[in-house]
Amino acid sequence: MRQDFLWGGASAANQYEGGYNEGGRGLSINDVERGASHGKPREIDDKIKSGVYYPSHNATDFFHHYKEDIKLFAEMGFKCYRMSIAWSRIFPNGDDAEPNEEGLKFYDAVFDECRKYNIEPVVTLHHFELPLALVKNYGGWRNRKLIELAVKYAKTVFTRYKGKVKYWMTFNEINSMFIAKTPWHQAGIIYRADENKINVMFQAAHYQLVASALTVKAAHEIDAENKVGNMILYNCCYPLTCRPEDQLIVHENLLPIYYFSDVQCRGYYTNTCKAYQKKMGAQFEIADGDLETLREGTVDFYSFSYYSSLVDGVGADYSADGNLLDGGKNPYLESSDWGWQIDPLGLRYSLNTIYDRYQIPLFVSENGLGALDKIEDDGSINDDYRIDYLRKHIQALKDACEIDLVDCFGYTTWGPVDIVSAGTGEMKKRYGFVYVDVDDAGKGTFERRRKKSFYWYKKVIASNGEELD
Ligand code: BGP
Fold first, then answer.
1. Is 129 a catalytic residue?
2. How many angstroms separate the alpha carbon of residue 454 from the centre of ligand 1?
3. What gap in Å lies between CA 381 and CA 206, rounded to an integer?
């Protein structure tokens, strides 16, 4: 692996930070989302109700534990830490004239803490989060006004954190707007009964793509050192058989991915994008100047999440679960406690496919195993299953870099300290190297405890990926 390879972990404010009503922060869309629900979409309330548990309110309380947590990252030897800024901490209502100084100061302190240990912050601007007021007053990303507000937010943080943050990502899993069961997480949209959902969705996607391009441009103008990436929920999908139709079905599954990454990496709606618009019968407006903006704001690197793979084809058994996606079962793979199929080779295959298509540096921004952890009588947590999962995925990443010569410069495991699940709001679905004492009802001491995988990952990083056993 390259000597400057960025090993680390990744998190999101809405699942980790907490402090939802502290430091002048406004409400975010997640603050009205109930938890925990296993297997069903989570309920969204129109306002915060008493007696209801909302996981984002405290999450796992990075807000009050950031020094302790970053110290633990440093102890593992992290080279980078991917995190997100909560937009509502900077602009509590999204359209405020001035930013919230307390919020800016909070992230100053977080970045300073990272820098103290030579940990490079990698910052996502929109991780399934926007101020709730933007949903109430503008309808979320269905409204073009969000472009201007998002760019103002981006410019504010680029200016403030110049010299402290160099790596940025625009929208987390931007394509999840198309593939998740609702576009709430990604875009703050709830469909109205009388509207054409497809048109709303494609319009919102266009607005986010324009906002993404303007954000990249602004980042480069404010600091030529800035590197900005996209973030894609990659769907590694295999044909069920060698039947040609199965191959085409798999190709179709990739369309909602290429739709976003083609624009973000190549700067225009490619034939693939246009074919997908046609297939879906989508009608939406492109304003004067938008296409030029897209050309001017292509990303510096491509980042993606990878947890599992799926299968598709004629007669597939659609009983497998996955990251916001359901899909076909693969008889050759085992599954996690949450039914996500474990496929390390799929990571190598995906890295190759993506690099072949775009030929820009890659960053694996999420990977990991959500599992039930058990505390032994002596207080230890022996998460060998997590070590096994990560070992095989890191080996696949190494093979992609060292054998296939894919240019990948970073890898961050999901939720290095346990955080709330995005999909289900559960706490018991844990990804971390560090256990946090909180349960599905938000009860616990929030005490941190190192798991066995903590010591393992530390060795992996110290050896730059050589010592995986
Ligand atoms: C991705 C998100 C994350 C994260 C992860 C794991 O979709 O970017 O926010 O949570 O998947 O999913 P879950 O939390 O549902 O296990």
1. no
2. 20
3. 46
